[in-house]
Amino acid sequence: MPTRRAPLILPLLMLPALIGCGERDSGPPPLTPAALAAVAGDSGVPREKLARAIDDLFADEQAGETRALLVLSGGRIVAERYGEGYGRDSRLAGWSMSKTVTGVMIGQLVADGRLRLNETAPVPTWQRSGDPRGEITLRQLLQMRAGLRHTEAGQPAYASDEVRMLFLDGRDDMAAYAEAQPLEAEPGRKFEYSSATTLILSDLAARVLTDNRDPAFRRQAVRDYLRTRLLEPVGMRSAVVEFDAAGTLIGSSMMYATARDWAKFGEFLRHGGAVRGAQLVPRGWIDFMTTPSPRNPAYGAHLWLNRPASDGRDMLFPGRAPKRTFACIGHLGQYVIVSPERKLTLVRLGKTDDERRGRLRERLADIVAVFARGA
């Protein structure tokens, strides 16, 4: 009897394995019509592959909340998708992406002859005899190696300089707070990313644009310069910038714009500081911003670069995209990623806590990889 039953028992024992094989062979679930609709049919890359990479970003809770995703290839929008409650007209905070806007504005002032890259920064309180801060150059400020005691993202949070400067005892005159900090390293010797450093640059912009110390005059002078020389020519008409009570542009953090307008800024950088052939800032300035600084190969001058960081904390994805890829990066996972080789600009706006940023970078790298040759 047992011999006669064996042919019936064996197929039953194999059934779960056969079912499992069928599940594995079925592949990922089909994309929703909305996910496919977010990607242009003539994007130059496999439509479904790009749509799935974007869908994976939006669906991955470990990558945080994505509120806006925009991809431009060759200057044309090939993918655009928004989270629930957000759309094309939503102005979203750039946080530290604002630093790059400030860096470009400083470049324009250098081109105008109002500031000098390799000369000491004209901060009045540093000009007293014997003050070692008087040796800090504009170049060192832009490359985040001024040597000032600025602690970014420290613990506890309320003791961090950017928190104190933006929201606590330094909030009424942020530049004064930033400029009052002593040196902790010889100027030029140490890289230290710092929002306070960018506020010093914002103050310098106001000082060279007007002699009037009245906050209203300072605000108007910088707002007019920034809007007429950069924001309007780039096409960032949705952009809103904020100032502190002393009339200093909060150029480290407080700029807002739609995803489409952040993408226009990325395209402006991709074209070497030009818009439709008009050079708004010398191409050499963008080259400077995208050249590794002496103290951190992953940072240029108010721009992050796709290279291994000196401290091991990579901000992009070295090895998964061309080395010349660069990005404006902001708190909570704001990105404008530019790949000149791939003629690609990618904007991601949303909310991702620090502990999940690695996963977010992986998802963004997946999207950029779709545009690799032969992908």
**For the CA atoms, what is the radius of gyration?**
25 Å
Structural class designation: alpha+beta
Instruction: Specify the number of helices.
Output: 12
Please, how many domains? 1
CATH fold call: Beta-lactamase
Low-confidence stretches: 1-13, 15-23
Number of DSSP-assigned strands = 11
Please write the string of helix (H) and strand (E) elements: HHHEEEHHHHHHEEHEEHEEEEH
Strand arrangement within the widest β-sheet reads 2-1-11-10-9-8
Global morphology = globular
Named at the architecture level, the CATH assignment is 3-Layer(aba) Sandwich
Tell me the distance between the termini: 58 Å
* Beta-strand residue fraction: 5-15%
Characterize the largest beta sheet: strand count, sense, and whether it forms a barrel.
6 strands, antiparallel
Question: Helicity, in percent?
Answer: 25-40%
Q: Class, according to the CATH hierarchy? A: Alpha Beta
By CATH, the superfamily comes out as DD-peptidase/beta-lactamase superfamily
Quaternary state reads single chain
Average per-residue pLDDT, rounded, comes to 92
Quick rundown:
This protein has 375 residues and is of the alpha+beta class. It has helices at residues 2-25, 33-37, 47-59, 98-111, 138-142, 161-167, 174-179, 195-209, 215-234, 259-270, 283-289, 357-369, and strands at 65-73, 76-82, 92-93, 240-241, 255-257, 274-275, 278-279, 304-305, 326-330, 334-339, 344-351.
